[in-house]
Specification:
Keywords: Membrane, Transmembrane, Transmembrane helix
Structural class: alpha+beta
Radius of gyration: 50 Å
Largest sheet: 8 strands, antiparallel
Number of strands: 15
Number of helices: 18
Number of domains: 4
Helix content: 25-40%
């Protein structure tokens, strides 16, 4: 330790009192010895004892101005973000902008409360010092000084008493901090917006020629049809009653099943999506071409056969003499059909009506049997559409005969499809009406002998019969019970397996005529659709999109249909889902208002600072201590703010303790019944590191 002596000759203007520490003595004109080590720095601030005016010099002016401007500039990014969000409203999402906005919203949610507390807290400090300089109540100062945070504002209002005109604005102001932070996270989202674009789609025509009676169908397509037909019979119940078949083709409802739905002005009956049971015309749907991702809407023109069955009779056909058949179907019977009925026959179909084969246009009539293939000079007769006979031989004794009237129904169906990149499309008919196109005469395909022969001979052979189980016959009885369809033998088979034989008759007798009409219609339409050219391939695969332009008018579509086209191409409305930005306007406005409050606080702090002559006095400890009479603190520097003053004298040791006895008659204080006790005085004083002067329990203080 090197010791040396310093002598200061200091002149103090205006006769100001000096400043004393343990190592320095100041006086108006005085020699001050000071001993310290070489490494020790002087503890006296440079502004000690120097009187100053309250005016700012240029350096301080720039310093304060920058301090005012910086908080204002901090609000600029917030305004930019909210403006970007508002301008991005309903704009397509780009990966770069989405990532940037997502990251910035998280950063802003963190930074905003910090910036808010800095700027608004600074405004409170400036306003407190302005009010202190102008003169105000201690309660207002205390309320404002301690309301520089969200929790501090709430706690202060509670502890000092709730004053509505003052407390509500303070708390409401600070609520912008957490609310603004949350608004930053919620003011922008994304959604999928529908973009409508015109397109086209192709689908399989149900009015194309039928090949049920041709050798090509028997040798090439019938084996594939039997597999698909058998699978459709035992498909899950939700498939049978659903809008699509097993392979994703859209099924066409029966218009008669929509009779209870009200038509609009254009004849459309819109199908409810819930709490409504739809009856479909066939187990097969109509194949269509590939769909783009998104939602597609298009119309399908189709036709189907609908039976109205109402006459059921029973007659004995088995007895002691064996099997005897009346011969109604086939041979010279009244009803034409291709089946050869024997004692092993389970059921058969026959048709009584006019044969229109000779009226077909082409000489190759096996390849041109279609509803639009008749000559234009054809006129209907009273025999059209004829009568269809269904006979059931599964009973132990009787044959059940059911007579049905066939009719051809032409409908236009509005189809809606949805496709996503990783899933198969889902389609359904949303509305249906009677077709507005020109319709052929009221005939069915049963009026063509070749088609009738193919239907009546091949349909009974379309399913295998093992151990007396006829799945097609069981479907007519209970279409939604696959267990019944696949495992229930006919009554005649069961009778042959029991001893003594039973006398059970056909289960068809238990089926309501309306239900039977619908179920048999479904089976006939399924066969007729499956017996068109290459139908089995189209049913299980995607139909190719035709290169032909779409038929944009009923006339063009009608011309395409009458030309016997296998596929029809129609306009489609494609709705793709494009991700777009959505500005949540309420949250965006909340964030904008919060940012405006933040900017206003910065501007207000700048304005009120210029209205205040003194530098910040509250709430700094350095200023509080400097005004105490029991602490040796250097005087001077009225231009120094409280925080700078505290920094300059940060090494000063102070303590809240007993600064001396209260004087009342030689250091004693009279309490109670006159007992005189010592009473200390609490205050902030210099602390030399000793325990003397520390506050103690059990003593009295003022």
């Amino acid at each position: 330790m090197v010791r040396f002596s310093l002598v200061f000759d200091i002149e103090y203007p205006n006769g100001l009192p000096g400043y004393r520490t343990d190592s320095i003595d100041f006086a108006a004109t005085n020699n001050v010895p000071y001993d310290q080590s070489i490494q020790e720095k002087p503890q006296a601030p440079v502004w000690v004892g120097t009187p100053q005016s309250l005016d700012m010099d240029r350096k301080e002016w720039w310093k304060r101005s920058i301090g005012d401007i910086v908080p204002m500039l901090f609000t600029v990014p917030f305004f930019v973000i909210v403006a970007t969000v508002m301008m991005a409203h309903k704009k397509p999402v780009t990966p770069a902008l989405f990532t940037r906005l997502n990251e910035l919203s998280k950063v802003i949610a963190t930074i905003f409360p910090l910036e808010f507390s800095i700027s608004v807290g600074r405004a409170f400090v400036k306003y407190v010092n302005y009010k202190l300089e102008q003169g105000t109540t201690l309660g207002l100062l205390e309320r404002l000084v301690n309301s520089r945070t969200v929790l501090g504002a709430v706690r202060t209002q509670v502890r000092l008493g709730f004053i509505p005109l003052l407390s509500i604005p303070i708390i409401a102001l600070w609520m912008f901090s957490p609310i603004g932070s949350q608004a930053a996270l919620r003011m922008v989202t994304t959604t999928l917006a529908p973009i409508v674009t015109p397109s086209k789609i192709s689908y399989l025509s149900t009015r194309q020629p039928n090949y049920a009676g041709s050798s090509q169908f028997e040798t090439s397509w019938f084996p594939g049809f039997t597999s698909l037909f058998s699978a459709a019979l035992v498909a899950p119940g939700f498939i049978k009653t659903g809008p699509m078949d097993l392979w994703g083709n859209v099924k066409i409802p029966m218009l008669s099943g929509l009779a209870n739905l009200q038509e609009d002005t254009n004849g459309w009956r819109y199908i409810p999506k819930e709490n409504f049971s739809v009856t479909y015309a066939s187990l097969f749907g109509i194949p269509y071409s590939a769909l783009p991702d998104g939602n597609s809407t298009f119309n399908i023109e189709s036709t189907y056969m609908e039976l109205t069955c109402g006459n059921r009779t029973s007659a004995p056909t088995r007895g002691a003499s064996g099997f005897t058949y009346s011969g109604l179907i086939g041979g010279n019977g009244e009803f034409r059909g291709g089946a050869n009925i024997t004692e092993n026959t389970n059921w058969a179909l026959g048709y009584q009506g006019q044969d229109l084969t000779n009226l077909l246009l082409d000489t190759d009539r096996n390849a041109s049997q279609c509803l639009d293939c008749l000559r234009n000079d054809f006129t209907t007769s009273k025999e059209v559409p004829g009568t269809l006979l269904f006979q059931d031989f599964t009973g132990t004794r009787d044959v059940v005969s059911i007579y049905c009237v066939p009719s051809q129904v032409y409908v236009e169906s509005m189809v809606q499809c949805t496709k996503s990149p990783r899933l198969q499309p889902t389609c359904s008919v949303s509305a249906q009406r009677t077709s507005i196109l020109a319709q052929p005469p009221p005939i069915t395909l049963l009026s063509f002998q070749s088609t009738l022969n193919g239907l009546t001979s091949f349909l009974p052979q379309s399913t295998r019969r093992l151990q007396g189980i006829d799945t097609m016959q069981n479907y007519l009885v209970s279409p939604l019970s696959n267990t019944f369809i696949e495992s229930t033998p006919t009554p005649r088979y069961l009778s042959n397996q029991t001893s003594p034989p039973s006398n059970d008759e056909s289960r068809i007798n238990t089926v309501e005529m309306q239900d039977f009409s619908i179920r048999l219609s479904q089976l006939l339409n399924t066969f007729l659709e499956g017996s068109t050219a290459n139908a089995t391939s189209y049913l299980t695969d995607t139909l190719p999109l035709s290169d032909d332009p779409p038929a944009t008018s009923p006339t063009l579509l009608d011309n395409t249909i009458t030309s016997r086209a296998q596929t029809l191409t129609v306009p489609a409305s494609h709705i793709s889902l494009l991700p777009i930005f959505i500005c949540n306007w309420p949250w965006a406005i909340v964030f904008l208002v919060s940012t405006c409050v933040l900017l206003f606080a910065s501007v207000f702090a700048s304005y009120i600072r210029r209205k205040t002559l003194t530098r910040d006095f509250l709430p700094y400890v350095g200023n509080l201590v400097s005004q105490g009479r029991d602490v040796d603190v250097p005087r001077g520097s009225v231009r120094t703010e409280g925080l700078e003053r505290s920094k300059a004298i940060s090494g000063l040791k102070v303590r809240l303790g007993n600064v001396g006895d209260v004087e009342e008659g030689r250091g004693r204080w009279t309490v109670g019944t006159g007992v005189r006790v010592g009473v200390g005085r609490i205050g902030i004083t210099n602390w030399d590191g000793q325990k003397e002067g520390r506050l103690k329990k059990g003593l009295l203080y003022l």
